[in-house]
């Protein structure tokens, strides 16, 4: 193979315009021992690419792959079994909850039962709660009025 031809092929290679046959020629050329001195910098590159193209499989490759496949199958089976138990447990919990829901013993709704003995006690409690709420609103209104007086000079600027 001529040196000029190799240099042309290298130029085409760097521009990604080579065919597969031309690339094979380049690889074969750089695998030889007598590569011109100015092209030796490319020798290691093409040798590495050749080695990457043909990965060497060791003797234990098949056994490793088969053991990995077997582990995956065990994992899948284990997952299916655990999924089955999860679904079964959820079903049991659902049944227990459904069976333990019973209507109240009395026909009256427990939420409607009276908590005070007389209507006057209930009215007094309602008045006490409303007075408390009213006092809290008044305190809040006083704070707002006080702060509005502080802000009033600024608001006059925007009118």
Features of the shown structure:
about 75% helix, about 160 residues, elongated, mainly alpha
Please characterize this protein's 3D structure.
This protein has helices at residues 3-14, 20-31, 40-53, 61-100, 119-157. By secondary structure, the protein is mostly helical. Among the domains are: 3-53, no CATH class; 118-159. Helix 1 crosses helix 2 (20-31). The radius of gyration is 44 Å and the shape is elongated.
How helical, in percent, are the residues?
over 70%
Distance between the termini: 93 Å
| Helix and strand pattern | HHHHH
Largest sheet entry: none
Summed up, the helix count is 5
Query: What is the oligomeric state here?
Result: single chain
Indicate the proportion of strand residues: under 5%
| Rg (C-alpha, Å) | 44 Å
Low-confidence stretches: none
Name the overall outline.
elongated
List the helices and strands and how they pair.
Layout: H1 3-14, H2 20-31, H3 40-53, H4 61-100, H5 119-157
Helix pairs in contact: 1-2, 2-3
At a glance:
The protein is mostly helical and 159 residues long.
